[in-house]
Amino acid sequence: MNEKELLELIGKGECHTTEFKKSTTDITKDVYESICAFSNRDGGHVFLGVKDNGEILGIDQNCIEKMKKEFVSAINNANKMYPPLFLTPAEYELQGKKFCTSMCLLVHR
Fold first, then answer.
1. Would you say 56 and 99 are in contact if contact means Cβ atoms under 8 Å apart?
2. DSSP secondary structure string, 27-66?
């Protein structure tokens, strides 16, 4: 996804396929609830480091790798989320701030 597409998606705001999470230093439980909801519908994007109003806060530089690892580990762990999900996590930088998004692609059945 390029910068224009990202800004367009964020600019449209939250909807049934787009969710913003303020998470700047760790991943909160509501992130996983959103992923679970998306996996039961048409998939979608969860943006970490973005406020509900679409303001890009960014993720603390020292926390990005840890958060990505935690996120992927939890989503792919059948003991935490069943069925486990295949995700495509991505890291982006806009307005000088880094944030992450993941798209739910497929649910193991």
1. yes
2. --HHHHHHHHHHHTTT--EEEETB-TTS-B----TTTHHH
Give residue-wise pLDDT tens across range 3-55: 888 889 999 999 988 999 988 899 888 888 888 888 888 778 888 889 999 99
Please give the structure tokens belonging to residue 79: 């003991």
Tell me, what CATH number does 61's domain have?
Answer: 3.30.950.30
Query: Which H/E stretch holds residue 88?
Result: strand 85-94
Largest CA-CA distance found in the chain, in angstroms, rounded: 40
What Cα–Cα distance (Å) separates residue 2 from each residue in 32, 35, 79, 95? Answer: 25, 23, 35, 13
Give the range of the structural domain holding residue 44, as residue numbers without chain letter.
Answer: 3-107
Instruction: Quickly count helices (H) and strands (E) in the chain.
Output: 3, 4
CA 93 to mean position of chain CA atoms: 14
Please, are residues 81 and 87 in contact by the beta-carbon 8 Å criterion? no
Q: What is the domain count for the chain? A: 1
Q: How many residues does the chain have?
A: 109
